[in-house]
Known about the structure:
CATH class of chain A: Mainly Beta
Radius of gyration of chain B: 29 Å
Helix content of chain B: 55-70%
Number of helices of chain A: 1
Strand order of the largest sheet of chain A: 4-3-2-1-5
CATH superfamily of chain A: Ferrous iron transport protein A (FeoA)
Structural class of chain A: mainly beta
Largest interface: A-B, 33 and 42 residues
CATH superfamily of the domain at 3-208 in chain B: P-loop containing nucleotide triphosphate hydrolases
Number of strands of chain A: 5
CATH topology of the domain at 3-208 in chain B: Rossmann fold
Strand order of the largest sheet of chain B: 2-3-4-1-5-6-8
Shape of chain B: elongated
CATH topology of chain A: SH3 type barrels
Distance between the termini of chain B: 74 Å
Distance between the termini of chain A: 12 Å
Largest sheet of chain A: 5 strands, antiparallel
Shape of chain A: globular
Helix content of chain A: 10-25%
Largest sheet of chain B: 7 strands, mixed
Order of helices and strands of chain A: EHEEEE
Oligomer: heterodimer
CATH architecture of chain A: Roll
CATH architecture of the domain at 3-208 in chain B: 3-Layer(aba) Sandwich
CATH class of the domain at 3-208 in chain B: Alpha Beta
Amino acid sequence: MTLDTVPLDIPVRVLGYAAGLGAFEKERLAGLGLRPGVSVVKILKTPLRDPIECLVGSQLLAIEARLLPHIRVEAA
Amino acid sequence: MKRVVALAGRPNTGKTTLFNALTGLRHRAANYAGCTVEKAIGTMQASGGEVEVVDLPGTFSMLPQTEDEQVAFRFLSECAGSGDDLLVLCVAEASNLDNDLVLPAGLKAAGYPVALAVNMIDESRLNGIKLDAAELSGRLGMPVALVSARTREGLEKLDALLTPPALRADLSEAMDFRRATKKRLHELQDEAVETARTASAASVTWPHRSVLPTVARAIRIDRVLLHPVAGPVILAVTMFLLFQALFVGARPVMDFLAAMLGSVAVRLRAHLPEGAVASLLCDGAIPGISAVVVFVPQIAILFLMIGFLEQSGYLPRAGAMVDRALRPFGLDGRVFIPFLSGFACAIPGVMAARTIHSEKRRIVTILLTPLMTCSARIPVYTLLITAFVPLSFRPLGFNGQGVVMAGMYVFGIVMALLLALALKFTSLHELHPAPATVLPPYRVPSARELARYVWARCWHFLSRAGQVIFTLSLVLWALAAFPRDAARLAPIEAELAAARTSAPSDPGLERALRGRLAAARIEGSVLGRTGRLIEPVFEPLGWDWRVSIASLSALAAREVFVGTLGTIYALGGESNASDGLVVALQDAKNADGTKRYGLATAVSLLIFFAIALQCMSTIVTVRRETNSWKIPALQFAFLFGLAYALSFAGYRLTLAFLG
């Protein structure tokens, strides 16, 4: 499954990135700590429903909604 | 050979706080060669002598993406190649070591001498995290100090790391990042991620909680501050307060400074004989100083509030909230504060663009911020609207003059967004420089850090932009004061002298004569002659030479337009929008008896002043912020051309439809 399909407050683990995600975004997400093996919880949608606040490991990230379908995850 | 300590690390690790703690106030700002990225350089005394400390731009990984990140790596390579004695002091947040250790591990693997400062140790203690510095040092192969830059805890251990032996490093094997292949950087990054993970796992004992207390608190606060309804309301109130503080809070101090300097000029003039020296001091130098210092209150208040919002952790969240709305225009949430500040004054707005890490996005923001309706435009708009928008104009029952004034604010925003759209098709466009951003934990801002932040910004403006603004003020004064046409001025001066000595004195006559004298001086000056010379250029916009001169002089500051027109209309420099000048403009007639100005001229002037970069101080500030004359020159030329074209269209359309 991908992160966009996961409901809020459900912890999942990152498996990798799906095809279609650009190199820039991959590197940026990895640099920020969203790497395979890391736990992720979608916390809330910002008022315009994009970006999405996520708990990634021990830090909070605001991630553009368009990236979530490209992040493959599994149940934690 | 210099001894250099380069502070490197991810954003939000407290790098700048540590830089301030190490260097005190012994630091200055410069730009890295060939780009707009700011370099903070300071000095500190380590045993053995003086060491230069450089605060590098924040870097997320070994894969530099933005210009800021590339600059950091480029600096390290240049330093290694120059033979300087270099130590990279990486700063990591104690509660986020999994991510923050990647950079030091990667730089170490790339052959650089690295020491590690694990910062915010006080916060990690509150989070229940236990750190084994010796184990961490052994795993990473570099000296480690546990510190809190905010409370200064552990800084003495850091001093020990910066003693000469640690600095004398062999840099012959250090990787040159300027020539490194993408593949090699990816390998380095992967190695560093693994090293960071194992080092963190071996040296950090995490609490038996799924979420750290500081993060749990941040989530609780975010559920309120980013709530679909409460979030925008709180943001609107926060921005309203910021805007009010800029306008209301700064205004009394600005007025006081302007009045104080004005009274100095008046007193000085009373003690000096009439002539060039008095004019230089009272009309050139003192207004020049005034043109610089009056901006300081706004800059101080703006950066006090930006610093507070940034240090508290709210600023990135505010950016996230408006990000979606700005994305279609090729912008993002971080342009919000500079744009908002631009409504008070473009100078702090342009300076506020420093909070944007991506260079291209920063330049786009700097290019567009001057389109926001700054307070200097208000006197010009008020004069023109009062003089030429009839009171009988009441759209939907509202006061038409008020509607037009509000419309000018909307016009500025619409123009900025349209130009942002146009810039999407240029090389300045980046798809989205930050598709994901860190939302740091909420923290109570430190008063000392805030004071330093505000002082640094004010000093930066005074020391860098201020000098040029002052010099250009003198140049503009000289253009308006010379040459002095003695034959033309002599009869008026004689009349004035006679009026002064006559008894009983007639203040009204004296004022009128001073007004005529000022008008005669400016008409005969280079500025006045240039105004006449360029009259044909602006004639298609419905301007005569008087308006052309006033617009030229408004380069000093937009509001000068009103004063210059007042001078030209010989109102003794005491006119304002609410009295003589409004009537003078309404009643002004051409030689054939037709009205000199009408609604069409006002429309063309309003459009011109809304778009053109008629502000020398902003131009100088853009030059300082971009480290280049090319950008402000292009910005000035483009906005001037656009303003001219739209003013022409506005003039012609108004003539065609409204007469």
